[in-house]
Design goal:
115 residues, seven-stranded mixed beta sheet, four-stranded antiparallel beta sheet
Length: 115
């Protein structure tokens, strides 16, 4: 079973930054072969895709609401995917989930943007 563990959430003021990390691991799991994604779910809203990065890391895509503010990257040696979030807004408040290969989910990390 692939374990997906997110970290890095917390409370930040509007305009601030946070970096989320996600480690995916399991015996026989080839991290470099999987597209990795970040999703988020705000209270009383559906889960939405925030950003995704292809297996090789050559391509990424973003939700329109975060373009120019968030950056997804991956470190294949450490089986880790990152989400750098800048210029945070209150509407970015949500539980952020990491997904591996459209199949494996983490339990999420809470990001709260508030003054």
């Amino acid at each position: 079973q692939v374990q997906v563990v997110e970290s890095g959430g917390g409370l930040v003021q509007p305009g601030g930054s946070l970096r989320l990390s996600c480690v995916a691991s399991a015996s026989g799991f080839t991290f470099i072969s999987y597209t990795m994604s970040w999703y988020r779910q705000a209270p009383e809203k559906e889960r939405e895709l925030v950003a995704a990065i292809t297996a090789g890391g050559g391509n990424s895509n973003y939700a329109d609401s975060v373009k120019g503010r968030f950056t997804i990257s991956r470190g294949n040696v450490k089986n880790t995917v990152y989400l750098q979030m800048n210029s945070l807004k209150p509407e970015d408040t949500a539980v952020y989930y990491c997904n591996a290969g459209a199949r494996y989910w983490g339990k999420g990390t809470l990001v709260t943007v508030s003054s």
